[in-house]
Amino acid sequence: MYAEWRRQLGAGTSARQRASIALEANASHIRAFETTVIPGLLQTPDYARNRLAQSIARHGVLDDVDEGVRVRMQRQEVLYRPRKRLHFVMTEAVLRYRLCPPEVMVGQLDRLVALCSMSTIHVGIIGFGAELSESPKHGFWIFDDQRVLVETIGAELTLTQPQEIALYGQVFDRLAASASYGAEARRLITQVLDDLG
C-alpha cells in the first residue's frame, strides 16, 4: 500500500500520530531501524516539534504542530508497558545530523542516554566504526510479523507480503547484530554530546 503524505497529513499531523497509537498498541513486538532521525517513540517534545514542523512545511498541510507534538508524546506511553518487546536500532548519523538547534539536540541525546538504561526497551547504536554485513539503505519499522512501514519523502509504504516482512526481519537482525547496546551505546551518545559542547 502506498499512502502519500499530503493525503495522510491533510487533517494535520495529529491525526497520523493517533493512527500510530492504535498500531503500536496492538503490536506486541516492534522493531525500528532509523538512518537519519531519532525514532518518534524516543523523541523529546522539542525534537518532535522540529520534525513535525518540517513535515508540515514540506507538504504544505494544516499547521497543527502543537497538537501533533502532544499526541506524539502520548504515543510514548507504549514504552512503559512491560509485555511489549520494543527494539530500536539507529546509526550514529542519527545522533550527529543537525536537524534542530544544538540545545534541542543536547536534550534529545540526554533523553536517549536515559532510554538506553530502560529495562522495557532495547536501544542499539551502530557506530561509524562498526563492521556491517548489511547496508543501512533506509529506515523501516516492523510490527510483529504482520507489516513493515517504510517512509519515503513523498509517501509511506505498508508492506504485508510474508516474504517482504521476512526479508526486512532478516535485515533488521543483521543490522542489530552490528549495534552497540547498554554502556557502549551510552558511550557513543555521550561522545556526540561532548562534540556538541
- Averaging pLDDT over every residue, what do you get? 94
Proportion in β-strands: 15-25%
**Helix fraction by DSSP (H/I, runs of at least 4):** 40-55%
Biggest β-sheet description: 7 strands, mixed
Strand order, main sheet: write it out. Answer: 1-7-6-5-2-3-4
Give an account of the 3D structure.
- The chain has a seven-stranded mixed beta sheet with strand order 1-7-6-5-2-3-4.
- The chain has 197 residues and is α/β, with parallel strands linked by helices.
- The protein contains eight helices and seven strands, in the order E-H-H-E-H-H-E-H-H-E-E-E-E-H-H.
- The termini are far apart.
- Helix 3 (45-59) packs across helix 4 (65-75) and helix 6 (102-115) runs antiparallel to helix 8.
- It is 48% helix and 18% strand.
- It is globular, with a radius of gyration of 16 Å.
- The longest helix has 16 residues, at 162-177.
Give a brief rundown of this model.
The protein has 197 residues and is of the alpha/beta class.
Jot down its keywords.
8 helices, alpha/beta, 7-stranded mixed beta sheet, 197 residues, 7 strands
What is the element layout, followed by pairings?
Blueprint: E1 2-4, H1 5-8, H2 13-26, E2 29-34, H3 45-59, H4 65-75, E3 85-91, H5 92-96, H6 102-115, E4 121-126, E5 140-143, E6 147-151, E7 155-159, H7 162-177, H8 182-196
Helix pairs in contact: 2-4, 3-4, 6-8
